Amino acid sequence: MSEPTDHYFSAEPTAPDERRPVTVRLAGRDHVLTTARGVYSPDRLDPGTAVLLDRAPDPSPTGDLLDLGCGWGPIALTLALRSPAARVWGVDVNRRALDLARANAVAVGVDTVRLVEPDDVPGDIRFATLWSNPPIHVGKAALHALLERWLPRLADDGVAHLVVQKHLGSDSLQRWLNEHDLGLACTRLASAKAFRVLEVRRR
C-alpha cells in the first residue's frame, strides 16, 4: 500500500527517509530503482503513471522535455531512455524525491536528465514534450496554478500528456483547460484502468 499522500508534495517530508528497492519496467526493460517514504507511490510504479507511459505517443526525439512532478523519476527516466538526444527536465518541490530521482538516473545510466526544483528551470525554455501525473491531491486551486505556470511553456508545436483518474476530476480538468484563457486545446487521448490521458496543444 502506498504511503499516505500528505507528504509527497512537501519540500521536506517528515516521514523517515527509509530507502527501498523497487523493480519497474521503463522503456521496455526492467530496472531496479530506489524509493523511500515521504514520496509519491514509494512501493511501486503507480497505476496512473503506468497508463501514461503505455498510452502516450512517442516523445519528441530532440529539444527540451518536461516531467512535471517527477517524484522518484519513472516518467523523466522513460523520456530520457526513449529520446536520448533530448534534454529532459524533471521538476518537483519534494527534495527527497529529487535526490532519489538523481540516484535512479545514475542507476539507469542516463545523463541527459536535470532533476531540479521549479525555480531552477530557466524561464526561456520551451518544451517539445510535457508528461505529467499531476498532483491532484494538492487541491484544485493549487493544481490549476501549477498548470497555468507550465502548460503555456509548450513550444509552438509542443504537446503535453496528463494522466488523471476519472473519479478525481479528469473530465472537469479537461473542461477547465478548454475554457480557461491559456490558448490551449485539450482532448481525451485514451482511457484505461479508471484513468484518462489528456492531450494538450496550443490552439
TrEMBL record:
<dbReference type="GO" id="GO:0032259">
    <property type="term" value="P:methylation"/>
</dbReference>
<dbReference type="InterPro" id="IPR029063">
    <property type="entry name" value="SAM-dependent_MTases_sf"/>
</dbReference>
<dbReference type="InterPro" id="IPR007848">
    <property type="entry name" value="Small_mtfrase_dom"/>
</dbReference>
<keyword id="KW-0808">Transferase</keyword>
<dbReference type="Pfam" id="PF05175">
    <property type="entry name" value="MTS"/>
</dbReference>
<dbReference type="InterPro" id="IPR046977">
    <property type="entry name" value="RsmC/RlmG"/>
</dbReference>
<protein>
    <submittedName>
        <fullName>16S rRNA G1207 methylase RsmC</fullName>
    </submittedName>
</protein>
<keyword id="KW-0489">Methyltransferase</keyword>
<dbReference type="GO" id="GO:0008757">
    <property type="term" value="F:S-adenosylmethionine-dependent methyltransferase activity"/>
</dbReference>
<feature type="domain" description="Methyltransferase small">
    <location>
        <begin position="33"/>
        <end position="198"/>
    </location>
</feature>
